[in-house]
Design brief:
Radius of gyration: 24 Å
Largest sheet: 7 strands, mixed
Structural class: alpha/beta
Number of strands: 21
Helix content: 25-40%
Strand order of the largest sheet: 4-3-2-10-14-11-19
Number of helices: 14
CATH architecture of the largest domain: Alpha-Beta Complex
Number of domains: 3
Shape: globular
CATH class of the largest domain: Alpha Beta
Bound molecules: uridine 5'-triphosphate
CATH superfamily of the largest domain: Spore Coat Polysaccharide Biosynthesis Protein SpsA, Chain A
């Protein structure tokens, strides 16, 4: 049986670090609520929190960048040299070997709060596709199932949630019968949560009896994989490589043999996919070599003098934009955890609903009132002994849904997906109607079961009906 934490000891512990206000409404709580608040407070790492409040919230240091920053070399999407093309052939074969031998797990980080999208539910339940309105989770499940059928393999799928969306996520997968994946192959686990803190360094209450908690950032995945037993489960299944992706991109290649193969052939610990940035200010982290180590410098942190540099042929010199797709070796996650690694915490000022300490009522702030502290997965890159970078194609793989409207919204994601699909169809000789501005004059959704790659369309071209302007086409 769980022991009830010593309330008086907690009161003293919090008072000593200036957080005694968390018990302001204690006497108004029911016995159950009191026990729950004590339990929640006892579960927090207060020495770490006190240190983070001191360093991240109250005295944030301005970022000190090394003088020694170079663009990271990357494998081009369409290589010019025969030797690189040969390398890609070997990498593709290696990636396929890993898949066929059941060495690869897919891993989506889905613990975020998706506050910009404003969707009431886990982001993975958001209807993403343009004809059938398939939720993001279904897009991933169908992609993985199609890859399994193609390579005659099993790809276990791990989903990281947070306490805020865990049950809703599990229930959703249950309601949809795991979208055709065997239940035994889909694993859910939670990341850790941290309290949000006022700009003055006071931990916030969400209600008089609960702390205002938020997930500790996607960097928390490297710890959660280990703590939850997911990593041990992977090893039991013979998995050696983790294909890491985010929950917001319906056309992501959840596993990509070529990328995984390059990563394996180069004996890398953690590798990244990138896109060439459209402009120096595009909001993608820059993958760089800092003092020789692979590092992501956030778009807002790379000095303009570097960000705007151009090569002789006019391209941005620092153009490797991270799209948060990584190949990660299981041994690397094991090694990090075995040596008690710590990723740096980043500060984000956000609007967090919290209790007004004078009235005890929960209020919704109009402007950012809190600091959330998060770790980022890419901060593990400098700890990797080997790391490769591979350039993917923007239209082929990047249609993120972050915002309700505008850039990276559902509308832009659907537009990109139709553009990708129209290119695939045209490459197979199928006529797609276009508007005067050159964009497709139709909506096209292609299920992974119909085609995983453009070449798959050719074999099925005869089945595709003629497309008229304004048509909605679903190929499944
Ligand atoms: P985002 O940076 O888009 O954050 O996360 P978010 O919390 O989902 O959305 P906003 O900023 O509130 O609008 C990128 C990816 O990292 C995951 C998200 O679920 C998404 O897949 N993530 C983020 C976590 O798994 N845990 C976190 O603590 C934060």
């Amino acid at each position: 049986m769980l022991q009830h934490p010593d309330h008086n000891a907690l009161v003293q512990q919090l008072a000593a670090i200036g957080q005694g206000h968390l018990f302001t409404f204690y006497n108004q709580l029911s016995a159950l609520e009191k026990a729950e608040l004590d339990r929640q407070i006892a579960s927090m790492d207060w020495p770490l929190l006190a240190e983070l409040i001191r360093t991240v919230v109250l005295n944030p240091e301005s970022l000190k960048l090394s003088e020694n920053i170079e663009p990271a070399p990357f494998f081009e999407h369409a290589p010019h040299h025969a030797a690189t093309r040969e390398k890609y052939r070997q990498a593709q074969a290696m990636g396929e070997f890993l898949l066929k031998n059941n060495r690869v797990a897919a891993f989506v980080v889905a613990g975020g709060q998706g506050s910009r999208l404003g969707w009431d539910g886990p982001k993975g339940t958001f209807p993403a596709t343009s004809v059938k309105n398939k939720p993001l989770f279904q897009c991933f499940a169908e992609f993985l199932r199609a890859m399994e059928l193609r390579f005659g393999c099993t790809i276990p799928f791990y989903l990281m949630t947070s306490t805020a969306n865990h049950q809703a996520t599990v229930d959703f997968w249950n309601q949809h019968n795991y979208f055709g994946l065997p239940e035994s192959q889909v694993m859910f686990f939670c990341q850790d949560m941290l309290p949000a803190v006022s700009l003055e360094g006071k931990v916030l209450l969400e209600t008089p009896g609960t702390l205002a908690l938020s997930p500790n950032g996607h960097g928390g995945s490297l710890l959660a994989l280990y703590k939850s037993g997911a990593l041990a489960d992977m090893r039991k299944r013979g998995i050696t490589q983790i294909s890491y992706f985010q929950v917001d991109n319906p056309i992501v290649r959840c596993v990509d043999p070529l990328f995984l193969g390059l990563h394996e052939l180069e004996n890398a610990d953690m590798s990244s996919k990138i896109l060439p940035k459209i402009s120096s200010t595009e909001k993608l982290g820059n993958i760089c070599l800092v003092d020789g180590k692979m590092t992501v410098i956030e778009y807002s942190d790379l000095p303009a003098a570097l960000a705007e540099q151009r090569t002789a042929d006019g391209q941005l010199r620092f153009r490797a934009g991270s799209i948060a797709l990584h190949a990660i070796r299981c041994d690397f996650v094991q090694r990090l955890n075995a040596c008690g690694f710590a990723l740096p915490y980043h500060r984000a000022e956000k609007k967090v609903s919290c209790v007004d300490m004078s009235t005890g009522k929960t209020v919704k702030p109009e402007k950012p009132n809190a600091v959330k502290m998060e770790t980022f997965v890419f901060d593990a890159l400098p700890l990797a002994t080997g790391s490769i970078v591979y350039e993917t194609d923007r239209i082929d793989e990047f249609a993120p849904i972050k915002n309700a409207e505008g850039v990276d919204s559902i509308a832009s994601s659907r537009q990109i997906t139709t553009l990708r699909n129209s290119r695939w169809l045209q490459a197979a000789g199928i006529t797609v109607p276009h508007k005067p501005d050159g964009s497709p004059d139709c909506t096209i959704e292609i299920a992974a079961s119909f085609a995983l790659y453009p070449d798959d369309i050719k074999a099925k071209a005869a089945k595709i009906p003629a497309i008229k302007p304004g048509d909605e086409v679903y190929l499944g």
